[in-house]
Amino acid sequence: MSGKNGIVTGAGGGGIGRASALAFANAGARVLIMDIAAEPLEETARLIGEAGGTAETMVGDASDEDFAAQMVARTVELWETLDFAHNNAGIGIAATPFAQQERSTWDRVFTLNAFGAMSFMKHELRQMEKQGFGAIVNTSSMSGKNGSPGLSPYDASKWTAARGSSVSSETAGRSRLRAAGVVRWLHDGSFCTHRLSLRRVGRYRRCAHRS
Fold first, then answer.
1. pTM for this one?
2. What domain range is 195 assigned to?
3. Residue 199 forms part of a structural domain
4. Each residue of 180-200: pLDDT tens digit?
């Protein structure tokens, strides 16, 4: 990954996003990272810097398509290319019986987990198609595949992101991008894709990065 440039969303906190950003940076990549909260995002950047890596930060809302476009443009402005992206930002919910779930919960979860990821991917693919190369990973969940009681909004949003990734991969594969590695979805549960796994922090350590 030396000399590669990329985006990682949802990189604040101690979960997959931070682990992903650290893994890419430790492998020699430069990363533009984002989160909605400034303090944990800066902590991720500090950890990357302490490890000898390069990170820039942007604070914003990952469900905002304008912000997604700005992040892609900023990456190109900083380093000229966008070689990879990990669209990880998302939210979970408390388990609630289906008949008690509110429409507002469905709207909130889908806006970030599905529409946000797809907006980022849209603008990332536009840049990668111009370049003729690139790879994208979207974080999904085993709940999206198997379902979990009381988590219908979350399950459906993650499955939407997964299917959107697959369709976009097929479309991008018909252009100049490599079909095999263009778009993959990463389970946040028990296993990772064969194309790109992430070194996890704490409970995420079972996966090691490779490209």
1. 0.79
2. 5-204
3. yes
4. 233 444 444 333 333 333 333
Asked if 22 and 15 count as a contact pair (C-beta separation under 8 A), the reply is no
Active site residue 204: no
d(CA 64, CA 144): 23
Token pair of 18 as six digits: 């931070």
Q: How far apart are CA 130 and CA 44, in angstroms?
A: 30
* N residues, the chain: 211
Residue 25 domain-assigned (yes or no): yes
Q: Edge-to-edge strands of the sheet including 5-8? A: 54-59, 30-35, 5-8, 84-87, 135-140, 183-187
Give per-residue pLDDT as tens, 48-81. Answer: 999 999 999 999 999 999 999 999 999 999 999 9
Number of domains observed in the structure of the chain: 1
**Are the beta carbons of 174 and 187 closer than 8 angstroms?**
no
Catalytic residue, chosen from 154, 159, 185, 204, is 154
Alpha carbon distances (Å) from 153 to 120, 188, 190:
20, 16, 21
Contacts (Cβ under 8 Å, ≥6 apart) of 158: 90, 113, 114, 140, 141, 143, 144
